[in-house]
């Protein structure tokens, strides 16, 4: 079945080298509106580097990245964010000495530039705390009970929910998450995936993960990276069955299966 949803990001022939190492090697990648996609791969596969290229953390050595009809290959991260293009953890630092709710207020008003940061800090965000967007965000991300807690006292799972809430408040078209579940306990993972599930259909979600087990019930599409290249890309089940994925990612010996040539 062909996917008729509009294209939102298209990377073409993207390459990034670190000295002699080709961290991302001639990658083509397409994301569509409201897609829930994942990229997995072993450590060092190039996932974070690819992610950094999409967010504009550094430019590629070769290739182009388009957002809708625009070439964004060399655009700075803030320019991409300002277009509502994407929001990531790297760009959503929390203020650890402020409360949960004041972090939400700062994220929201900073994104929409409704007040200067200084004004907000001087007023300690008071007037803004009842903004419907903030109230909704507390509910969606299950932060009501800890709304007044200072961020440095949160558990890792609570902090991750806050980070995602802060990202989502700015209503990005694409939510890019690099290992959002890393370091979390099983119950924290469930809770973070629970809040992400509520975003399905409202924006494109791209999750980069090391461990497939974390995201198996969540993704509609799966891409596998190996040594800088995309070795499989498609529906979740179909990608996991791919012989190259079984060989390179799972390291399953497929040499006895059918007549595929195994490259040493
Ligand atoms: N800033 C950097 N300088 C030099 N080498 C890097 C840098 N970032 C990543 N690498 C290398 O690029 C390869 C891919 O890394 P990375 O993108 O972090 O992989 P992944 O996120 O899949 O674990 C690794 O070999 C890593 O050591
Ligand atoms: Mg990584």
Report on the architecture of this protein.
With 264 residues, this protein is of the alpha/beta class. The chain folds into 2 domains: 1-85 and 172-264, P-loop containing nucleotide triphosphate hydrolases (Rossmann fold), CATH 3.40.50.300; 90-171, no CATH class. 31% of the residues lie in helices and 24% in strands. It has 9 helices and 10 strands. The protein has helices at 47-55, 77-82, 100-112, 117-122, 132-140, 156-169, 186-197, 236-241, 243-248; strands spanning 7-18, 21-32, 36-40, 62-67, 70-71, 86-87, 174-178, 204-209, 221-226, 229-235. Strands 6-7-8-3-9-10 form a 6-stranded mixed β-sheet. The protein has a 4-stranded antiparallel β-sheet with strand order 2-1-4-5, with helices on one face. The longest helix has 14 residues, at 156-169. The radius of gyration is 20 Å and the shape is globular. The two termini are 35 Å apart. The model is unreliable at 258-264 (pLDDT under 50). The structure holds adenosine-5'-diphosphate and magnesium ion.
């Amino acid at each position: 079945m062909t996917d008729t949803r509009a294209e939102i990001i298209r990377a073409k022939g993207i390459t990034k080298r670190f000295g002699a190492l080709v961290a991302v090697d001639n990658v083509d990648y397409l994301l569509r509106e409201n897609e829930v996609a994942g990229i997995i791969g072993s450590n060092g596969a190039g996932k974070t580097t690819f992610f950094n290229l999409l967010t504009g953390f550094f430019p590629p050595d070769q290739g182009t990245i388009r957002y809708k009809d625009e070439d964004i290959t060399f655009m700075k991260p803030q320019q991409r964010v300002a277009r509502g293009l994407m929001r990531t953890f790297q760009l959503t630092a929390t203020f650890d000495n402020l409360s949960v709710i004041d972090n939400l207020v700062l994220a929201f008003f900073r994104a929409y530039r409704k007040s200067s940061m200084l004004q907000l800090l001087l007023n300690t965000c008071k007037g803004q705390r009842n903004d419907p967007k903030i109230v909704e965000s507390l509910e969606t991300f299950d932060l009501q009970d800890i709304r007044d807690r200072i961020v440095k006292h949160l558990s890792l799972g609570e902090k991750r929910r806050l980070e995602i809430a802060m990202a989502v408040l700015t209503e990005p078209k694409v939510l890019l998450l690099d290992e959002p579940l890393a370091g979390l306990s099983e119950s924290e993972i469930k809770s973070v995936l629970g809040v992400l599930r509520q975003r399905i259909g409202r924006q494109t979600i791209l999750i980069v993960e090391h461990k497939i087990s974390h995201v198996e019930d969540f993704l509609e599409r799966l891409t596998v990276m190996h040594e800088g290249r995309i070795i499989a890309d498609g529906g979740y089940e179909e990608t996991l069955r791919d012989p190259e994925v079984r060989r390179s990612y799972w390291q399953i010996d497929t040499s006895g299966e059918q007549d595929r040539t195994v490259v040493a």
